[in-house]
Design goal:
By secondary structure, this protein is of the alpha/beta class. It folds into 2 domains: about 140 residues, Aspartate Aminotransferase, domain 1; about 280 residues, Aspartate Aminotransferase, domain 2, CATH 3.40.640. It is built from 17 helices and 15 strands. The strands form 3 sheets. Strands 4-10-9-8-7-5-6 form a 7-stranded mixed sheet, with helices on both faces. The chain has a 4-stranded mixed sheet with strand order 1-2-3-13. The protein is globular and about 70 Å long. Bound molecules: 4'-deoxy-4'-aminopyridoxal-5'-phosphate (PMP). This is 4-aminobutyrate---pyruvate transaminase. It comes from Albimonas pacifica. Keywords: Aminotransferase, Pyridoxal phosphate, Pyruvate, Transferase. Its cofactor is pyridoxal 5'-phosphate.
Length: about 475
């Protein structure tokens, strides 16, 4: 029995997510009990700077009272309703109008014009896949159904979204991908995979050629859609190499393949613009978003679809009658009210502009760590960054996976009061968008101390 009884209660009842379950039997979970701005507190009163905004998501930090008030007011008015059977409610309409008014530009002449609400990013991506299939059935091309994601791309945890995700651990033992309709193309991690002398632009060309080769090998008439996160999040906060999306989109257009932008992390100011699609000139057919849509104060996500896809849904329904899908909690009024208030706060407080203004200090503070012997590369945009840990920077040699250097850094950072996330040996940072320059300095200072301690420990063990 762990001395802290709440930890014991947690262990006795909860299966934790993305966790080494057997390992945590020893330590139990750290239970958070409160928050203040960019900080959270555990039950022992220890304070942590949330360098990940929770799950890349709590954009307004952990104590935004205006969102609590919005939730309470909506609960008093209409605590629940749905959007089935031609019914609906104003909280959803108000949010949809606001969201669509700020949507990224779709393909020329084909704006993102409608929204389907969900409760998670995974569900949005599932629906996007279903709609791609549904639309191609309508268009009389039932063989055009394959969906291409990228290795190390992350799109969620449901059966379809996890199939689309390109992470072996999410497939192994879960019998995924669910079918051979799910394919994965190479991922644009220039720093690690570029050949000697290969520029970012040349590397991007190679990535686009890989995609084209895959489409041709499968047969373009069988490929329906391509999914990408503008900045790959779970894969390690990987910004695309220069010209990547321009070249990828040219291939997709050539073979009539839909582009679905997974903006679940990048949406709402994270990359220094409202959308990652703005930052990288992506013109998507569908966009999934969640997380910062409600600053994560309520579980809500949204799939925005182009007018062309919406027209196809109308045509299908004229033939078949019912549009046969829907979730009980989709467009939940309390979540909609909180999300709408979040979007208002983004405007009132100029949150996206603030994030863009703090970005140089944030990226500069992390780039300042390039003098550290453990750091091979630092890359980011807006308020998202990845720090690559390397055994030998000059020769680009990684640590052995068994050394679990990334996990060690993540744990040591936590002991130092800083929450970051390891993706292999890349350490990801996505603080709340409200972070100030002095908090950025504090974050970088805590991280440098963490790196120093890790280096000492690795040296003592003969691993560095
Ligand atoms: N897409 C991306 C890019 C994500 O990062 C995530 C979650 N981290 C998801 C989809 C899935 O979202 P959710 O966990 O809300 O299902």
């Amino acid at each position: 029995m762990l001395p802290n009884s709440n930890r014991a209660r947690d262990l006795a009842t909860i299966v934790h997510q993305q966790t080494e379950l057997s390992g945590m039997r020893e330590t139990g979970a750290t239970l958070m009990t409160g928050g203040d701005g960019v900080y959270v507190f555990d039950e022992d009163g220890k304070r942590y700077l949330e360098g990940m905004a929770g799950m890349w998501s709590a954009s307004l930090g952990f104590s935004e009272k205006r969102l609590a008030e919005a939730a309470y007011a909506q609960m008093q008015d209409l605590p629940y309703y749905h959007t089935f059977h031609s019914r609906g409610h104003l909280a959803a309409v108000d949010l949809a109008e606001k969201l669509l008014a700020m949507a990224p530009a779709g393909r020329p002449g084909n704006p993102l014009s409608k929204v389907l609400f969900h409760c998670s990013g995974s569900e949005c991506n599932d629906t996007a896949i279903k709609l791609a299939w549904y639309v191609n059935n309508l268009r009389g091309r039932p063989e055009k159904k394959k969906i291409i994601g990228r290795q190390m791309g992350y799109h969620g945890c449901t059966i379809a979204a996890a199939s689309l995700t390109g992470m072996p651990g999410m497939h192994r033992e879960f019998d995924l991908p669910i079918s051979d309709r799910f394919l994965h193309t190479s991922f644009p991690h220039w720093y690690r995979f570029h050949e000697e002398g290969e520029s970012e632009e040349d590397f991007a060309t190679r990535m686009a050629e890989d995609l084209e080769t895959l489409i041709l090998a499968e047969g373009p008439e069988t490929v329906a859609a391509f999914f990408a996160e503008p900045v790959q999040g779970g894969g390690g906060a990987l910004t695309p190499p220069r010209t990547y999306f321009e070249k990828i989109q040219a291939v997709l257009r050539k073979y009539d393949v839909l582009f679905i932008a997974d903006e679940v992390i990048c949406g709402f100011g994270r990359t220094g613009n409202p959308w990652g699609s703005d930052t990288y000139a992506i013109r998507p057919d569908m966009v999934s978003c969640g997380k910062a849509l409600s600053a994560s104060y309520q579980p809500i996500s949204a799939l925005m679809i182009s007018e062309e896809i919406h027209q196809a849904l109308l045509e299908q329904s004229a033939r078949l009658g019912n549009f046969s899908m829907g979730f009980t909690f989709a467009a939940h009024p309390v979540a909609c009210a909180v999300a709408r208030r979040t979007l208002e706060i983004y405007e009132e407080d100029r949150v996206f502009e603030h994030a863009a203004e703090v970005s140089p200090a944030f990226l500069g503070a992390l780039e300042g760590l390039m003098d550290h012997p453990l750091v091979g590369d630092v890359r980011g945009v807006g308020l998202i960054a990845g720090v690559e840990l390397m055994a030998d920077r000059a020769r680009r040699v990684q640590f052995a996976p068994e050394a679990k250097v990334g996990t060690r850094v993540q744990e040591r950072a936590m002991a130092n009061g800083l929450l970051v996330r390891a993706s292999g040996d890349r350490i990801c940072f996505t603080p709340p968008l409200i972070i100030t320059p002095s908090q950025v300095e504090e974050m970088a200072g805590l991280f440098r101390r963490t790196l120093d301690q890790t280096l000492d420990a690795l040296t003592a063990e003969g691993l560095a």
